[in-house]
Amino acid sequence: MNEADVRERLADVRDPDLGDDIVSLGLVNDVEVEAGEDRGSGTVRVSLALGAPFSPNESAIADDVRAALADTEFDVELSASIPDDLAADEQVLPGVQNVIAVASGKGGVGKSTVAVNLAAGLSALGARVGLFDADVYGPNVPRMVSAEQRPETDGETIVPPERFEVKLMSMDFLTGEDDPVIWRGPMVHKIITQLVEDVEWGELDYLVMDLPPGTGDTQLTILQTLPLTGAVIVTTPQDVALDDAVKGLRMFGKHDTNVLGIAENMAGFRCPDCGGFHEIFGSGGGKALAADHDLPFLGGIPLDPDVRTGGDDGEPVVLEDGETADAFKVLVENVANNAGVVRRRGVSDGR
Predict the structure, then answer these.
(1) How far apart are CA 220 and CA 235, in angstroms?
(2) 108 labelled binding-site residue
(3) Residue 175's pLDDT is what?
(4) CB atoms closer than 10 angstroms to residue 280
(5) Residue 106, marked binder
(6) Does 167 show up as a binding residue in the annotation?
(7) Residue limits of the MIP18 family-like domain (predicted)?
(8) In this structure, are residues 71 and 1 in contact, taking their beta carbons and an 8 Å threshold?
(9) FRET partner for 291 with CA separation of 20 to 30 A, picked from 9, 57, 169, 179?
């Protein structure tokens, strides 16, 4: 078997999102066939252009590649990477594969809750994850993951603490307890830029950014500074939240940033006493918003006291069992899948 034989077999493997085979899409970086001592055996090494580690759809592509070569006598070794066009010293975060911003048009919709559970959920899948709490005016992440350890520094670099195997950085680490944060635009730009450059994130599959609500200086700095894979927009079903979510969509659109989808938080409450389901903030607003703007709907998260308890006690509910945990796990998988679509489409379109 030679390289052409391998590529012929791989032409039967289809990308479930892009709608064509991985060879035609340019998702096979390289094929190397190493013959063994016995004729017809050896090792096949295939490098795939997959950019969202542990996403279900990319894992399925890898499984299909193995299956396409399973009836040969060759061992199959797979690797995955999407080369960056910039040199390492020109990259802002050279060790980070995907930067995902979690945003909302207004406060009070559970954006930080989604960011924390997204990061913890990705880590639970096996990914290497960082969580950057960039909400300069209301940093809540340390409490929501019960992060008692503070960052360490040698005066030049900052080593982030870890919780649930997620590397953490927060504006809360930089201020005194209960101190008000009064920072103007230039100060916000400076501190965000410094943290991006000075924190030792290391090798990460995903860096989740919890942005402040709205469309202000922090968002602008991040959009101008970081290579975002995409953004997750969090809303509740009610009209006033949806109106503000549209403003967030337009902000990312103006900066040519992919929106990975809409997450609808507080999507109904199931009464633990009567078992009834009550749509306190309305019904289906997030899903309709996604449809109106031709965007993926990432899922609905119910209004659940366990989410509040998990946030206050520092135990993300996505790591538990139950209906709400399952809803968060669906959201996590959808975000990872859509990040993969963005990365693979970039490879295919840029051939």
Answers:
(1) 20
(2) yes
(3) 66
(4) 13
(5) yes
(6) no
(7) 3-74
(8) no
(9) 57
Q: Binding residue per annotation — 109?
A: yes
Q: Tell me the pLDDT tens digit for each residue of 113-124.
A: 999 999 999 999
CATH 3.40.50.300 in the chain is located at 88-340
Is position 107 annotated in a ligand binding site?
Answer: yes
> Who contacts 344 (Cβ-Cβ below 8 Å, separation ≥6)?
15, 17, 18, 25, 27, 49, 50, 51, 58, 82
Q: Is 248 annotated as a binding residue?
A: no
Under DSSP, the state recorded for 199 is B
Q: What is the pLDDT of residues 46-85, one digit of tens each?
A: 999 999 999 999 999 999 999 999 999 899 999 998 877 6
Known binder of ligand: residue 287? no
For the domain with range 88-340, which CATH number is right: 3.10.20.340, 3.40.630.40, 3.40.50.300, 3.40.50.920?
A: 3.40.50.300
Across the strands, what pairs with 230?
A: 100
The Cα 230–Cα 218 span in angstroms is 16
Q: Which residues of the chain carry a pLDDT beneath 50?
A: 180
- Residue 116 marked as a ligand binder: no
Beta-bridge mates of residue 44? 33, 76
Enter the CATH code of domain 3-80.
3.30.300.130
Q: Rounded to two decimals, what is the model's pTM?
A: 0.90
How many angstroms from the chain centroid is the CA of residue 232?
Answer: 8
